[in-house]
Amino acid sequence: MGDADSNDFGVDGFAVHPDGLIIVQCKRNSSANRVGRPTIQQFKGVIEEQGALRGYVVSTSTFTEEAKESAVLSEKIVLVDIDGLARWHAEAPTFL
Question: Which residue of 9, 53, 75, 76 could cross-link 20, Cys pair, CB 3.0 to 4.6 Å?
Fold first, then answer.
C-alpha cells in the first residue's frame, strides 16, 4: 500500500499540541542525499490543508540551500537535520 492509498498525505506523524496540530515528516536519507525544495514545498501544502500549527521535516541527512530558503518563507516549518536529530536524542526537544 503506497502513500496514495493510505490517506496519510505522506506524513509520518501527527501530534496534538495545546495550540494546535503538529505534523512530522521523516526522511531517512544517506548523508549524500540531501532533502530538496520539492519536499519542503509539498509539505507546506500538507500543513496548510490540515490547518496545522507547525510542521517538522526531520532528516538523517541535511537540506539543500533551496530547501532552507523555501522553509524560511513559512513560520510553520521547522527543519531538523542529522545534527538536530542527534541533539533531540541527547536532550528532549521543546515544541513551541
Answer: 53
pTM of the model as a whole? 0.85
Residue 64 — φ and ψ, nearest 5°?
-70, 160
Residue type, 79: L
Q: What is the pLDDT along the chain (96 residues), one digit of tens a residue?
A: 344 444 556 788 899 989 999 999 999 999 999 999 999 999 999 999 999 999 999 999 999 999 999 999 999 999 999 999 999 888 988 776
**Cβ–Cβ under 8 Å, residues 82 and 59:** yes
